[in-house]
Design brief:
- This protein has 2 domains: 64 residues, EF-hand (Recoverin, domain 1, Orthogonal Bundle), CATH 1.10.238; 272 residues, Alpha/Beta hydrolase fold, catalytic domain (Rossmann fold, 3-Layer(aba) Sandwich).
- 28% of the residues lie in helices and 16% in strands.
- It is built from 12 helices and 9 strands.
- A 9-stranded mixed sheet has the order 1-9-8-7-6-4-5-3-2, with helices on both faces.
- The chain is globular and about 50 Å long.
């Protein structure tokens, strides 16, 4: 088997469906090499032609802030499947502000079942909520790539949120925003047919870090912030952490043979998140690490990680798993053999992922 579960509890993950099309007449490698100005084997948003930059987040499947040659080729191949992740029975409400008069990033999209023969003023039956939090090294990415359709079809409301990136504000702004979005969704649960007692979060890479932090910091006032709906709880009832960092200070030490990033460099994603070179601000790094806050009342966790991840060492997920187990929390850790940063291709991983949310929230 190419992946191995560490415990018997099911695993959650949903593969992002890529939509859109970019000049499919050109060969993927030739086009990629032409755009890859600095020849580093990956494309950032600024390297794309201006007219197709809006498609960047759709092509960045794993949300790491870069497009690999593999992601580029898959994007071209799937161009004919525009909009496949949102089926006809899904209604999308875009760019809802979750902080009044807030930052331009304080927006979310909401995916709801289309009500058939329903009175406009009558709310739908209450459904559990899953919130998607995108990756992108805390400095890129957006809510636009949310894989909403399958979850809505299985009886969920889905939200996909933007949060302030590290060039907008340093930590803890990002977790303050995530918690503010949760509180806003709870405050508006009746309007959108949400069961406010059943809220799950799911994210990849930097988004995985943020959902793990949401899961372990339910009662940590320091991370709540003061943005809107402070009468509501930001606690969550299920967490799907997809290869997110959990102890920032140990990432270089654990990188091993597959590591391709100097996390301790002044321009690393972690250093930019904290507003200072990582190892020189250890207190800030500890404050931003989900491992710091693990307690026995944390919700069920699902953690998935590739064992050849070059950006976030798999040991980061192992440490969080061990800490949650020691606290007697319900957790499953699945290592995907041979997988890099989110390169999960096994259909069973997807199916087990969906079932995790169903078991935890329904």
């Amino acid at each position: 088997m190419p992946f191995r579960p560490i415990e018997s509890v099911t695993v959650v993950l949903l593969v992002v469906v890529v939509a859109g099309s970019v000049s499919a007449q050109s060969q993927p490698r030739q086009m990629f090499d032409r755009w890859d100005k600095n020849k580093d084997g990956k494309l950032v948003r600024e390297e794309l032609p201006a007219e197709i930059r809006p498609n960047f987040d759709k092509a960045d499947i794993d949300g790491d802030g870069f497009i690999s040659i593999r992601e580029h080729a898959e994007y071209l191949q799937r161009g004919s499947r525009r909009g496949a992740s949102v089926q006809g029975n899904v209604e999308v409400k875009r760019d809802l502000s979750y902080v009044p008069d807030g930052h331009e990033r304080h927006k979310l999209d909401l995916y709801l079942p289309k009500a058939k023969d329903q009175q406009p003023d009558v709310p739908a039956s209450k459904r559990p909520l899953v919130i998607w939090i995108h990756g992108g090294a805390w400095r890129a990415g957006s809510k636009n790539g949310c894989p909403a359709g399958p979850l809505v079809e299985r009886g969920f409301v889905v939200a996909s949120i933007n949060y302030r990136l590290s060039n907008h504000a340093v930590f803890p702004a990002q977790i303050h925003d995530c918690k503010a979005a949760i509180r806003w969704l709870r405050a508006n649960a009746d309007e959108y047919g949400i069961d406010a007692e059943k809220v799950g979060v799911w994210g990849s890479s930097a988004g995985g870090h943020l959902v793990a932090l949401l899961g372990t910091s339910g009662d940590v006032k320091d991370l709540e912030g003061d943005l809107g709906n402070l009468d509501q709880s930001s606690r969550v009832q299920a967490v799907c952490d997809w290869f997110g960092p959990t102890d920032l200070l140990l990432m270089n030490q654990q990188a091993g043979e597959f590591g391709t990033m100097d996390h301790d460099a002044p321009n690393s994603p972690e250093s930019q998140l904290l507003g200072g070179t990582l190892q020189q601000v250890p207190d800030k790094a500890k404050r931003a690490s989900p491992l710091t806050y693990v307690t026995s009342d944390d919700p069920p966790f699902l953690i998935v990680h590739g064992d050849q991840d070059p950006l976030v060492p798999w040991q980061q997920s192992q440490m969080l798993t061990d800490s949650l187990k020691a606290a007697k929390c319900k957790v499953t850790f699945t290592i995907v053999s041979g997988a890099g940063h989110g390169r999960f291709k096994e259909p069973q991983v997807t199916e087990d992922s969906l079932k995790f949310f169903e078991d935890a929230l329904k």
